[in-house]
Structure formats: C-alpha cells, structure tokens
Fold these 2 entries.
Entry 1:
Amino acid sequence: MSIRQAMLALLEDGPMYGYQLRVEFEQRTGSTWPLNVGQVYTTLSRLERDGLVEQVVGEGADHASDDAGHVVYRVTEAGRGEVSEWFTTPVPRTQPPRDELAIKLALAVTVRGVDVGTLIQRQRSATMAALQDYTRLKRSGRAATPDQPEDLAWSLVLDALVFDAEAEIRWLDHCEARLRRAAVDGVRRDARSTPDTSASTAPDRSVR
Amino acid sequence: MSAPVLHLDGVTRIHGEGETEVHALRGVSFRAHAGELVAVMGPSGSGKSTLLTLAGGLDQPTRGTVRIEGEDVGALGNAGRARMRRTSVGYVFQAFNLIPALTAAENVALPRELDGEKSRAARRLAMTALEEVGILDLADRYPDAMSGGQQQRVAIARAIVGERRLILADEPTGALDTDTGEEILRLLRARCDAGAAGVLVTHEARHAAWADRVVFLRDGVVVDESGADPVDDLLEPEAAR
C-alpha cells in the first residue's frame, strides 16, 4: 500500500502535521490499514528529502511549527505533480499480490492426504464470519448514513472488503463444485479402466 | 431465552422410494429464535428449499418434527396448518407472487381477510405493514404499475401483516438489482430486530452476511455454521424442546 502517495494526497487538502495526517487517513479508510505515527514521520521525512513536501515556517517564527509546537508540512509543486500522476495512473495488476489461499488450495489438491473439502468449508465459514462483521459495520455506525465525505470514503472501503470476501466465497464454491465433478469423473474413469477393482479406492486421489 | 420460534428436530425428508429415492434432508436440526435472522446457504440440491417448505408447513418430514412456536406442525392436520400459514408464518418468494388483479393494499390484506378478519380491519393492518416497508403511498397501485423492488416490498408487507412471528424468505433478492436487494434485506433485518424470527435462503454470500447465523447445507446435511448461537442456548440445551 502506498502510504507515500496517500500522505501527499492528504496534504493536497491543506498543510497538516504528522498526527493529523494519521487521523485523516484513518477517518477515510476506517482503520482498515492501521498506520502508526512513526510510519507517518518516516514517510514525511523521506518526502521532504525528495522535495515533495516542505515544512511550513510561520510568521516571524524561525522554525517550522504551529502554536502547539507541531511541525506542519505542505505539499510542494513537485509533490502535486506526483499526486496527480498517482490519481491518473491505474494500479498495476501485472504482478498479482500473493494470494495465500489460492496457493494453499493449489497445494492442497496436489499434496497427498489433505482433506480439501474440510479446508474449503473451514475457510468459507471464516470468510463468511468476516463478511458478517463488515455487513454489521455497514448497517450501523458512520458508514450506514454517510453524510460526510470521509464517511462515504469509509463506506466505500467497506464495500471493497465486502466484494472481496464475497468473491472469495464464490471462488471456494466454484472450487468445491469442480473438485466434486473431478472426483466423480475419476471414479467413472477408474470403473472403466479397471472393472475388477472397487470404485471405493480413494476417488480424490484420481483427480489428477 | 424463550423457546425457538422455529425448531426442526432430526428432520429427514425422502422423496420417492426404492431405486429413485432421494434424500433431500438427512437428520437436520435447526432453530430460529425470536429476533434472529438465520441464513441458509448451499448449492442447488443441497436441501435448502426443502428445509424452507418444511418450515412453512407446506410439506411434511419423513422423520423428525417441525415445531412453530412450540406447536408440532405435523400434528396440526391440514386445516390447522393452513391456519398457521395465514397467521404465524410469512413467506417471501423470489417471484413476489402477488395477485395482479389486486392492489398493493388488497394483496397485503388478503391473508387477514382469508383468516376471517373484517375487510376494514384487514385494510388497516395492511396499511400498517405497507408503512413499515416504506410504500404506504403505493397502497392503491396494482403490481404491474410497480418496479420489482416495490413489488417485493409489497410481498414483504404481506409476509409480515398481522404481526407474524416467522418470516421465511426464499431467494427474495434473486430478481432484483444490487441496491434494491440490499433494501429488501434491510427490511427483513429490521423485522427480525423488532422481534420476528427470520429464515433466509440465498446463494449470495453478500446477502447471507446480513444474518446473525449462516447455516451451510450440503447433500441434505448441515455441514457448518458461522456466527454464534445465542448465548442463552448454552444454558438451556433441553429446555427449548
């Protein structure tokens, strides 16, 4: 996740100090990707090094801080350029993020002795429980009646989580159906090629 | 906690016999309490529609019992079951099943009138139900002058009219677009939050997620459940029978 671009984009809204940036970020994304304040400061100092943000020096002050002593940052012209490039460039899908579940399932169907059916069902239940949680958040709290832009942003992030969980469950259903079909086909194949052996010889092993 | 509104105990349903015998449900136990929405998910042929027809007293189990508000549905007889369907159980179908020649209010009032309610009283109840689902202004409209979402709201009003305590919904969002479908779930949810017990059969995970519990059926057997049983259940394992 690009904290760098997110920080820059927030600063487009106006100068802010580190803690404010963190609060704003979490307001709009609902603490889905918790950000520690240390990360924010590290990012800010890198952005400053690269000339994308600068400290705001107040009237008559010799160092950059507001009345409460916070160091306030604003985006530079170069920083604006980077933000606008971020917003106009699609997020690349050339390198799909590593999907632990897909990898696990790919191995489960090929490694001997794994109960793939149980694996699928356990995962489906767990994902459904998460989906129930997201749905609860959607129908109560600030995402349910989004009158502020930040609330709308958070409710859209929730939708992303919902769609994601839903897609995963649909994919698990699909895997289950295909594996069952493959098992049935396997039994038929076995029955044809070796009529003398009983069809009860582990049909799941003959999937591949 | 009181007894479940719907209680299936060791229910088996076999269609046909001998060679062609099909086990639609095999020893399924299932409960829905007041205030609870339970979703049932499973591929076609898993038995989820059978479960709903048995729950609504439209069909009888081969073995096991179905109780609604403590009453054994099998022991009621046909007339008793018909009465129970008009007074205690509300059905919502994918295809709305409204009567085209009747207005929204008349459709909703019908089960009350069939139950012997005076037509004015029945209309009053119908108006309350229509208001609850947010379409009081469409009371005198005919189904063909309404959108799919509005028709399904009428169907829900018909399912809840007269304070029925068990709502059975069979893919109620199937024919609707995403936003309208969500509205329908919001209504079902609200009705359950207000004290009804709801059973929702769906193949859409996103819709099942509105439920307190999700029950997974495979080949007529409950294979898993997500979401917690009401805590009180642990305290009264037998008392609910």
Entry 2:
Amino acid sequence: MDKTTCDITKEQNTKEQNTKEQNTKEQNAHKKGDTNKEVNCRKVKKKKGIRLWIQLLWTAITNGYVIGFVEGKIFKGSSKQFCVPGLNCYSCPGATFSCPIGSLMATLNARQFHFAFYIVGFLMFFGSLFGRFVCGSLCPFGLVQDLLYKIPFPFKRKNMPGHKALKWLKYVVLVVVVFLMGSLISDATGLGQPWFCEYICPSGTLIAGIPLVAMNEGLQAAAGFRFALKLAILIVILLLSVVYYRPFCKYLCPLGALYGLFNPVAFYRFEVDKEKCVGCGACQKACRMDIPVYLKPNSLDCIRCGDCKRACPKGAIGRAKILPINSSKSSAVEKKNNQ
Amino acid sequence: MKPVLKKLAPFILLAVSLVFIGVGLLRGEHQTVLEKAINICMECIGIG
C-alpha cells in the first residue's frame, strides 16, 4: 500500500514527539544528577564540619580552666595525673590534664624509673583504640594547623619538598630525642632533661609559653635565647602550615609517629573492598596527607580525617569491623583482599 | 599478618596497656606525672 502524505506527516509528528520526550527525560535525569551531586556535596561539607566541631569541643574541654588564662597561673588539680591523648602541654594555663609526651619525658627523666609503664600504658590504650584518629580529631595543635591551612594562599601544597625522606624524621625524634636522650642522658644528680619539650615542641610554646610569659613579668625577665629559639621554631611551623598541610604532624611529631604504629591494628581502622574499588585514585587526590588509601588504608601517616571515604565514588572505603571475630562481612572482605 | 591475629591484636594491646597502667600506678609513676604537671614546666615554655 502506498503511504499518503497525511500518513507521512503523522509519522514525522510522532517521531518528533518521541525525540522531544527523550530530550526532556535526559534533561530531567541531568537535573536529578545535579541535585544528587549538590546533596552529596552538602553532606560532605556537613561531615567535614563535624570533625572541626569535635576538635574545637575537645580543645575547649581539655583546656577549660579559664581562671588560668585570666590570672596567668596553671591548674593544680589531681586530674593532671591523667593524660589526654593529644599533644597538649600541661603548662598551658587552661590545661586540666597532662601531655603524654611531657609526662613520658618527666618519668624517663626521674632518677627512680628506667621505663615509663604508666605513660606507655596510656599511649598504648589510646593507640589501640583510635590509632592516629587522635591526631585528626583530638589534638589541639592539629586543630591549629588545620585552621591555618584554610587561609587562602596561591601556592598551596600537600607536602614539603623532600617529603619521602622527611616523613621518617618523626621516628628519629621519637626514638632518639624522646626515648634515648630522655632516659640515657642525665646530669650529675641523675636527673634527665625533657629534650623534646625544651628544644622542639611548638605546642608548648604556643599554648603555654606565650600566654604565661605574656602575663608574668618574672617570666618575661627570665625569657632568653631558648625562648627565642622555641618561638622561632613555632613561627616557622605556623608559616609552613599555611602553605603545606600539617607539616608538624607529617615530619616532627613523636606522638603521631607512635600512634601511627597502631593504625594497622587499632580498633578504629579502615578497609578497602577490592571488589568495589576501581583504583581511580580519587582517595589519594582527596587525602591531604597524600596517602594512596586504595593501596594502604591503614598507612602509618593516616590521621583518619575521613576525606578519602567521602571522596570514593564507589563507597569502597569503610571502617573495618572488629567484632565478631570469626564470621563477618569484613572478614570476608579481608580474605578477598589477602587473596 | 593473619586476619584472626589482626582482629585479636587490638584486644591484646588494650589488655597490655591496662596492665602497664596498673604497674605504673603500683610504682607510683602517676605521682611523678602529677608533681611535674601542677608546677609550671620551665623547660616546656623555653625558660630554665
């Protein structure tokens, strides 16, 4: 049968209608995709914001002795026999607990002790529970560096030049300066010196040295070369923190070095589902500690900020489930990963 | 590290840490920490 011109125009009209419908569907799908992306972005921002609030809240709670800041004195309560997990100088006017590194050095420096069971116990306790989550969320000096890195600067970098070699420096500080020098070098009376606190720790200078010296004339008169040296170290680290992400945590902090050793075995650790992971590297791109999370989810350098989890397009990075020990989804994932 | 051992590791470490804290308390190490912490640490602030 021959088609009439009327039939042909009808067919053309229906084809046009179909293509129009398809276009509108595609446009709607694009719009939906955009809105989903926007919702995801908002969620990511919210979750990032939560970590900042935890850091602020923790710093405020553990340094909440306001009278100390007003009068230029330090807290003298018995709670100071306990340590906080992060680097938080006990001579900070607001500090209500002790610094683990300062306490470790104080015990190692004492005549009667050759090993600091109490503080090493505290460090193992926090390390086995959280690993370097402490650095990411419960360290006041980490918070300071995070805030400084938010300052806009044209040449932002994740790492300093020589990063691969420099990142081992913190282990040298931990072993040589904290443990070996702290326990082996002593004066004629048998007392040691807190070498790390005395010559390196920028946290002590920032939250203890500056406020105490500013409010105490006697201390102002006593401040000399060592104070100037510590102040110079602090200023350099603070300036570097504007350009590079957490330079002190990456290269110098002995506490971070120690907690990092617990990352692969802590209760709070990550795992990558190799079936979901496509190796796109989005996790490493998002990670400001520059860790290839898809290869090393429990890297010694990971501070558990969670940026990689949020950046993964496949949702392949998750928290490893520790319980139950025998049969769980995570153990199946681990087996697959091991294969 | 074997998966089971990896799962047990945090429990073992936690138990050892509690033992260490207990030993430290018995040796009076917490008193040393307290004494140091309730006085201004001159070395920590860069003086002394």
